[in-house]
TrEMBL record:
Residue sites binding ATP per the record: 29-35
Protein origin, superkingdom: Bacteria
Portion of the full-length sequence here: 194 to 509 of 509
Reaction it catalyzes: XMP + L-glutamine + ATP + H2O = GMP + L-glutamate + AMP + diphosphate + 2 H(+)
Main function: Catalyzes the synthesis of GMP from XMP.
EC number of this enzyme: 6.3.5.2
Protein name (database record): GMP synthase [glutamine-hydrolyzing]
Transmembrane in keyword set: no
GO cellular component: cytosol
GO MF term set: ATP binding; GMP synthase activity
Domain GMPS ATP-PPase: 2-191
Keywords annotated in UniProt: ATP-binding, Glutamine amidotransferase, GMP biosynthesis, Ligase, Nucleotide-binding, Purine biosynthesis
């Protein structure tokens, strides 16, 4: 009968059988599915699993480093980590429209792959982190769509390789279990859903390095306080975002005119509906005070109480 152990054994055999002496291109984002998929491929075919990580500078604090450390360091994977912050911040300069930001991030993601085509085009397969619910949703088990379609703007022709989908029989909790058995760090296995355009859609208005820093620091404070108080359990997503307005405050003897952080934490089953989490007021008060004191450029903190619908989980 089915266990995570037997799944791993069977999949490793199946991957070796399918791939033969070939190479597999495996894009890792730092999210649960792509991380588990990469770990499985590395276990099955070692350095013929070509793991690609694009650091667009829009992940949470420490997450890009953790991807490099886990795959490049711990697993000794064939990891190609492309540091592309310059490209993304350059392309996003001056852009404030949410849909344009999404489009720019998706397109530049594809461009990174195009620019590195010479190193990548000899891959025979493209690994894709499709899960069982995606298979069901797409109607037929043979018709699984390119899941990343939300996030990328059309793949270059040379990337239309044969697809392999080693997680297509798993539900999310099974994926997490498999990840644990494969030795992925717990933070990675438990990671919340995170939008492909990353912090780009959590920074209202222009995305700059400075504003990314503000969101990363506020987000880090918020989530470490939740964790250290045991309040993170049962939360579907929690994050800090930056609004595109300024308001007046006072710090020491000085008047400030700076930007506000919004904190959002929701419970949900499937992201279709969501409710704000009832975080104790004293915790919120400590978090707000830490953020204003520790994050330069922030002078006010809000907590978002809105349900989905009518709001969405993300702010853009
Ligand atoms: P909303 O904001 O529509 O989000 O309530 C529902 C879920 O989808 C995630 N999300 C995205 N995921 N690319 C993604 O891969 C995106 O552009 C994107 N936008 C939203 C969001 O985090 C939530 O889990």
């Amino acid at each position: 009968d089915w266990t995570s152990e037997s799944f791993i054994e069977d999949q490793i055999a199946a991957i070796r059988q399918t791939v033969g002496e070939g190479k597999v291109l495996c894009a890792v984002s730092g999210g649960v599915d792509s991380s588990v998929m990469a770990a499985l491929l590395i276990q099955a075919i070692g350095e013929r699993a070509v793991c690609v990580f694009v650091d667009h500078g829009l992940l949470r604090k420490g997450e890009a480093e953790q991807v490099v450390e886990t795959f490049g360091g711990h697993f000794h994977a064939n990891l190609k980590a492309f540091e592309e912050k310059e490209r993304f911040f350059g392309a996003l300069a001056g852009v404030t429209d949410p849909e344009r930001k999404r489009k720019i991030i998706g397109e530049n993601f594809v461009r990174v792959f195009e620019d590195h085509a010479n190193e990548l085009r000899d891959c025979d397969f493209l690994a894709q982190g499709t899960l069982y619910p995606d298979v069901i949703e797409s109607g037929s088990p043979t018709a699984a769509k390119i899941k990343t379609h939300h996030n990328v703007g059309g793949l270059p022709d040379w990337m239309r390789m044969k697809l392999i989908e080693p997680l297509r029989w798993l539900f999310k909790d099974e994926v997490r279990n498999v990840g644990r058995l494969l030795g992925l760090p717990e933070e990675m296995v438990e990671r919340e859903p995170f939008p492909g355009p990353g912090l780009g859609v959590r920074i209202l208005g222009e995305v700059t390095r400075e504003r990314v820093r503000m969101v990363q620091e506020a987000d880090w404070i918020f989530r470490s306080e939740l964790r250290s108080r045991g309040l993170h359990k049962g939360i579907w997503q929690s994050y800090a975002a930056l609004l595109d307005v300024r308001s007046v405050g006072v710090m020491g003897d000085e008047r400030t005119y700076e930007q506000p952080i919004v904190l959002r934490a929701v419970q949900s089953e499937d992201a279709m509906t969501a409710r704000a989490v009832n975080i104790p007021f004293d915790a919120l008060e400590v978090i707000a005070s830490r953020i204003v004191n520790e994050v330069d450029g922030v002078n006010r903190v809000f907590y978002d109480l809105t349900s989905k619908p009518p709001a969405t989980i993300e702010l853009e």
